[in-house]
Amino acid sequence: MSIQDDTLLVSAGRDPAANHGVVNPPIYRASTILFPTLAAFKNRKQQRYTGLTYGLHGTPTTFALAQAVAEVEGGARAVVVSSGQSAISMVLTAFVKAGDHILVTDSAYEPTRVYCDVVLARFGVETTYYDPRVGAGIAALIRPNTRLIFMESPGSLTFEVQDVPAIAAAARARGVLTALDNTWGTPLYCKPFRLGVDLSIQAGTKYIAGHSDLMLGIVTTATEELYRRVRDFVSQVGDCPSPEECYLALRGLRTLGVRLRRHEQSALKIARWLADRPEVARVLYPALPDDPGHALWKRDFGGACGLFGVLLRTGSEAAVAALVDGLRWFGIGASWGGYESLVIPGYPSGSRTAVPWTEPGFLLRMHVGLEDADDLIADLAAGFQRLAAAQA
Ligand SMILES: *Cc1c(COP(=O)(O)O)cnc(C)c1O
After folding, report:
1. Which CATH code fits 5-254?
2. How remote is the CA of residue 111 from the centroid of ligand 1, in Å?
3. Which is the closest atom of ligand 1 to the Cα of 152?
4. Residue 218 in contact with residue 205, Cβ under 8 Å?
């Protein structure tokens, strides 16, 4: 019988016998790694992918986290980097050269677009943004010089679910690599390699860390060969996560299953409550049966996290501010995936280039934390009263 995810979350990347019986992999702090002989030092490059050579390339703590995430996500191996944004830029850069072309979803996390438009463009790599609902139609956008298709599903602001298997199959038929920003799905709720993806990105900062107190990124690869390409590139650029952050992320990973199920349960309750409110035009959450991405989500995901969007019918920023500013349990701040609830405004129309965002209403992005769901609903209900008063 294959090992179930909850068992993997607890056991992956741990080796108490090798660490004096200590339950958690310890924090190894290292720059220099010592070798017993001149010959061993001279030959160290041979153990570049299997052992320790220098702190920059990883320590046992980094490797423990990488192994655990790769096992849970179902990939071959993983490279840990210092932020989710770094994981994105490494994947976008490692496989391209001047004159190449990449395809990126129009629904991508804003800094992903900025990296393509500002950095890659400067080095002669052209980006075409595609409709997140393109599916197998992606084939028509692949050019002879297309190297990579970069997906994010669902989009972390607008929540369109992509037909990842269809896009991956079209890419594979043309020898094009695929990458997926799988931060929303997490290694638990979306298994990218079963869907045909080559490279998966996690902002470990979010649910893996789970406590809003660290920055980390992880690139998981479908094969050993892709792992070596990413590993080499990350070392060449010089990105290196702190072992302290890796330790904390591993600690977070152990409880990912229980946390996510609670985030999902509360988010569903609140999303349904919001969908019934007269002030709400639409809730953008693939777990809701009438969401346009629901069928794909049901097919490709094992669950939903606590992040969704809500389109308010009002156009008044001042009225929305009255709602949001007075919330007691929802913080106003970037990022998500911690134990606490958050809300921020989103302005997707400003960044779309493939398909304009025309849906009317004011978009709020909510992260439902581990507070009591009814307390959160009461907080929002009071917020809607302030919204009404501000509009009266
Ligand atoms: C936050 C986020 C990132 C970037 O992660 P950082 O660790 O904050 O750099 C990447 N992708 C998605 C979808 C995110 O939400």
Report:
1. 3.40.640.10
2. 8
3. 13
4. no
